[in-house]
Structure to design on (263 residues):
């Protein structure tokens, strides 16, 4: 299939992204470039200088809400993407409403307790919507440990499932971007197999 | 009994075990995880009451901080 056809097909879908940090910002940009029709972005945080080692933001955006900064960056790479933003903290009560119209949801949180909350909420309240989880991306090297796993039709996992971020094993641009790209690739795979 | 754990055959003592018992038997207790039995997600609050039976398809994935 040629790129214009791929883009036309993908333009019919809505993808939700929970978190606009290292995973969410890089995944959103890859999906925007590929031609996803609409992106629903959620994050409560503002861009900090310390985020620029791995997140898709620029020095001039420090202090800006991540959702707004990401909306601007998406517009710079593909202005055709419809971007909906929620500058809020996601929880069990607001997740079902925010993501109910999405065709696929990307889990892009930092903290594992939040990841667990999102997976439990979506699998229970939004049954049938595929969720692509990112887990295990700390440090550097070990590219061979990165993997993709399809648990079932509604749950996919990208990452090494082993490394956890810490002071001695920080999240760095290469491995964070690898997992974000694997998540975006999974979204594209799911949607290319779907008839709208 | 025989179950499928992440697509591999595993043998557990007894005819049925709770999710918590399975985690103890396999010494899988320290990391944060998501567990599905036959495609149904088991919330962590249900690990004591949810039961695994012979032939069940158990899927487990690990959640690590970082993003």
């Amino acid at each position: 299939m040629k790129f214009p056809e791929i883009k036309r097909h993908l333009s019919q879908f809505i993808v939700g992204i929970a978190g606009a940090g290292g995973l969410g910002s890089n995944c959103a940009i890859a999906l925007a470039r590929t031609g996803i029709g609409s992106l629903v972005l959620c994050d409560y945080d503002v861009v900090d200088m310390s985020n620029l080692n791995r997140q898709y933001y620029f020095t001039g955006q420090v202090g800006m809400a991540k959702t707004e900064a990401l909306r601007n960056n998406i517009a710079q790479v593909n202005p055709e993407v419809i971007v909906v933003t929620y500058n809020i903290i996601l929880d069990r009560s607001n997740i079902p409403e925010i993501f109910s119209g999405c065709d696929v949801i990307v889990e892009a949180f930092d903290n594992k307790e939040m990841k667990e909350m999102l997976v439990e909420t979506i699998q229970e309240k939004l049954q049938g919507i595929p969720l692509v989880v990112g887990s295990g991306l700390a440090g550097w090297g070990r590219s061979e440990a990165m993997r993709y796993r399809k648990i079932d039709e509604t749950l996919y996992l990208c990452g090494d499932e082993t490394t956890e971020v810490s002071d001695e094993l920080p999240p760095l641009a290469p491995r964070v971007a690898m997992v974000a790209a694997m998540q975006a690739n999974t979204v594209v795979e799911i949607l290319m197999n779907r008839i709208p | 009994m025989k179950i499928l754990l992440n697509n591999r055959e595993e043998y557990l003592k007894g005819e049925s075990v709770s999710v918590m018992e399975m985690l103890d038997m396999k010494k899988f207790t320290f990391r944060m995880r998501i567990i599905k039995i036959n495609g149904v997600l088991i919330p962590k609050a249900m690990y004591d009451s949810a039961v695994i039976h012979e032939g069940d398809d158990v899927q487990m994935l690990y959640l690590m901080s970082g993003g």
